[in-house]
Amino acid sequence: MTEYAHPEVLVDTDWVKQNLGKPGIKLVEVDVDTKAYDAGHIAGSVGFNWQSQLQDQVRRDIISKQEFEKLLSAAGVSPSDTVILYGDNNNWFASYAFWLFKMYGHQDVRLMNGGRVKWLNESDKELTAEPTKITPTQYRASEPDLSLRTLLPEVLKVQTEKRHNLVDVRSPDEFTGKVIAPPGMTETAQRGGHIPGAKSIPWSTAANPDGTFKSADELRKIYLEEKGVDPQKDTIAYCRIGERSSHTWVVLKYLLGLPNVKNYDGSWTEYGSIVGAPIEK
Questions:
Q1: CA 254 to CA 258: how far, in whole Å?
Q2: Domain encompassing residue 166
Q3: Which of 36, 57, 172, 188 could form a disulfide with 269 if both were Cys (CB 3.0 to 4.6 A apart)?
Q4: Which listed residue (16, 169, 239, 251) is catalytic?
């Protein structure tokens, strides 16, 4: 069996349990909001609200370097710490945080494979509602690594050149334009469909039933062989608001080791609302 290109970015739930409380290891739960964290979380972890803490609420953008430094300082994280991220929804929002940590240059950040659900389904794993005691730090981040991110002008350019892999990780119904948003979620774009030339590879094809990532061999078969993602081309992943595409970004860049993979976090919310932008259904 082939190993992941970067197996060090994943830790399993047993590893997390064995390393709880050790110096230099910080656990962060990242969910769409903090309701689940407040009800019960892994001992010693801090909770990040994806909606209000990892996104600029005015600009609909990632938080700035200064905001990232403030957030991590208040969470007691140091640049030298090993940060373990986990969360709900198959680690969608934890993957977004992983992307953001990499963007701002944190050296050792990892995902707990399987996320919150896997931890909850294991009988020897516990949660606590006790608040985590935090000693604030003075976190300093790097300037953002923009090679990990795609903005709209680049997307408009590459979809006409057809020299990139465009990977749409939404559901098949979102891809075809039958629906604009998943059930229960607000429709934030005005039109349905997909970016011309994009391949439909739902994020869920990369996940096992327990929420963990599939093996390297399985992922290679799905993305490279069956769906035809060309590892020699630059790749852009997108979804609706950037969280599911972060999950696929981890798969392509770190588990399969594709050399140049970017996350288009503007995703369909932005692209599907642009006047005159070409769309396929």
A1: 8
A2: 149-271
A3: 188
A4: 239
